[in-house]
Amino acid sequence: MDSLFLGVNIAVFLAIIGFLIWMQKKHISFTKRVFTGLGIGIIFGALLQAIYGTDSDVLANTSEWYHIVGSGYIRLLMMIVVPLVMVSIIQAIINLEKSSELGKMSAWIIGILVTTAMVAALVGVGSAALFDLNADQIEAGQAEDERGNMMESSLEEVQDLSAPEKILAFIPSNIFLDMTGERSTSVIAVVIFSMFVGIAVLGVRRKKPEQAEMFTKIVNAVYAVVMRIVTLVLRLTPYGILALITTTVANTDVAGIVELGKFVIASYAAIFVMFIIHLVLVGAFGLNPMVYLKKALPVLTFAFTSRSSAGTIPLNIQAQKNSLGVDQGIANMSASFGATIGQNGCAGIYPAMLAVMIAPSVGINPLTPEFIIKLVLIVGISSFGVAGVGGGATFAALIVLSSMGLPVALAGLLISIEALIDMGRTALNVNDSMLAGTLTSRVLGKLNLQTFNDQTAIQKDIAL
Predict the structure, then answer these.
(1) How far is CA 345 from the centre of its chain?
(2) Distance between CA 218 and CA 140 in Å, rounded?
């Protein structure tokens, strides 16, 4: 009987995919197809949970089959991250008029990412205080205890790294290893290597122009092929979102959400406030916030469902360049840096809220100026090198809590709602990287305002 139900579930899922394919053949816009996949996925996931229950073997087996589409799509995105980042940055630097522009671009992008992470920490403190979050109010079960023990054991690895060692982790020693994405800082390492290649080409151009010209032609040819691969993969976005959101909703621990509802509400309140701050910054730089939001939504939707900042890099770059009019080089750098530096949700709001929630359990008042200032500074420093995949917030929490002298095991109390709040955090992380690219491009006079203000310039090449 279970196999019959499994077959029905797979057949319904394939029928929904067929409907999305029909929408594409009818040339319905990319954005509408993305949100259709999201909406149907939420409804279908809720129905699956209502029919089978989260502990059902049928639901578990169904989720495994759906993961072929959802996780498979994320794997394809991760597959193209390294070649896309490498070739794009090399080409962008080759096209720079002055190599000094590279320093300005990097400084503005990193500055915006880290500064907004520190602001996000303040927002997190405010939200935790407003909702009166306290770790003593949460009962720990077996899963929470196991998560707490895991975090304590992981803390030893984090504590072994000094601040200089964390900075050194960005510098590649084996670029082929980093091309595999083996380390949490691999993307940044690839960016740094690509910068060296681009700068080297600029030097060769002055001394051996013919060889530099030959290399440039090769890079341009490879770039054209890579971008075509990116387009092909991104066209699968509606199907990936459908599968990801369906399995997420179907397997959501509703009882855990109800029990920890106050933390969920407080988290999303902080995330919402930070989104508003992002939009205010867009307006402060003379751009229309609503136009920005409309063009960023398809990317944020995928970030929300996938919980992967790194996996969103290709879609992020495409949206910045084609929809927002951001300079190609800046778009590549902001998307790449934003996947591991200054993540507002994972490295800003989340650890700050945990610190305020846990501090009273050890007799510390978290609302004193000394505590808040120290917390914000630690968040700013520790926001470097947060892995851009699901679980990066745990790494950030370990660093911040241990640096504040707080017990990290208590963070395990939130395991039942981790996936739900991580969805919002990831969307905020990705939005911050898009914000950094847009504002940097605006400041340096490289933003194509015609493209930014063009209401129809939303992933045109993907929507076909």
Answers:
(1) 9
(2) 58
Strand-pair partners of 384: 341
Beta-carbon neighbour count of residue 93 at 10 Å? 24
Rg (CA), the chain: 22
pLDDT tens digits, one per residue of 417-426: 777 888 899 9
The token pair at 61 is 């087996």
Which pLDDT score, from 0 to 100, does residue 163 have? 57
Which of 393, 423, 415, 394 has the alpha carbon at shortest distance from 259? 415
Alpha-carbon distance of 410 to 393, in angstroms, equals 15
3-state helix/strand/coil string of 120-146: HHHHHHHHHHHCCCCHHHCCCCHHHHH
- Full-prediction pTM beyond 0.85? no
Number of C-alpha atoms within 13 angstroms, CB side, residue 198? Answer: 26
Q: Which long-range contacts (CB under 8 A, 24 or more apart) does 285-293 make?
A: 285/439, 285/442, 285/443, 286/442, 287/438, 287/442, 287/452, 288/453, 291/452, 291/453, 291/455, 292/324, 292/438, 292/452
